Amino acid sequence: MGSRLLNIQRRAAEHGRLRTGYTQGNRPVKSATWVVTSHSEEHVRKAAELWGGTPETWKPLNSTTAQWRVITKASSIEALITPGDPLNQYNELWSAGGCQRRCDGQTELLSRQPCLCLARFGEDWHQQKKGTVCSATSRFNVMLPDLSGMGMWRAETHSFYAASEWGGMVDMVLAGTDGKGFVPVTLRIEPRQVVRDGQTKKFPVVVVELRGVTPRQALAGPMSTAMALDPSGSRAVAALEAPRPDYLALAEGALTSDDVRDVWRQARKAGHVDPKGSDPLSKELMAIAERMDAEAEPVEAELEPEGGWPAVAEVPTA
Fold this sequence. Notes:
There is one protein chain. Helix content is 29%, strand content 31%. It has ten helices and 13 strands. Strands 1, 2, 3, 4, 5, 6, 7, 10, 11, 12 and 13 form an eleven-stranded mixed sheet that branches. Strands 8-9 form a two-stranded antiparallel sheet. Strand 1 and strand 2 form a beta hairpin. Residues 236-240 and 299-308 have low confidence and may be disordered.
């Protein structure tokens, strides 16, 4: 491997965002399915192929730069936790002028003062009206293995409840893997509700779950990239299957037309030709058999069974 700059943190490019809401004009709308946004039309169109929805151009609020987005039909998507620590969490307060507060729960980092929301409202500060206190902001970087590109996608939530769940899940995984290797997960939007002061409030929460592996496997140390990409092992099983024979080479090496017919029967049994012989490979094999029949000695031809190829139900005729 070549050298790297030691004073620069290496990271993959961000391809786009995974959102749980969208805007209609200036009105925010919560979504029960994932919303994928990116500057890349290719990425968004591929996401629409995988998870449904119609790609469209879109401008985020207070932005003049157009992006692409698709409101998918999927409430769950497959992702990979990448090496390192993928989770970044702060209590943040934003305005049109940018980030006004960024707090780690104890210290407001921009002013270096103790947590302002906690000092003013106490332990239940997060229940105050939005805009008057910080929002528990969690940014989770994942890789989407079925989309093009090797970059990262950022799932972001301002849910107080998701913040604790994401942190607990990621910390357990990091304890087992030491931040090395990939871990397969599912990102699922789950509807929740709470009853507070006699009122029921409904909201979506993004749940991060292990995918295709048990906690024992996830906590046993870094898993191989191959296992993370295919935890069910289905691709590995397919890779171990016998390669498809070169039926044309087998037919050309056959001694008689009956041997060629046996090659066709072998291909039919393996499901590599159409049972009625309408596919190109069947026709090529038939042509080889007919050529051998034409080149055979007359006495050999008289010994051939009548009918040439077996019945249509078994082997196709030319």
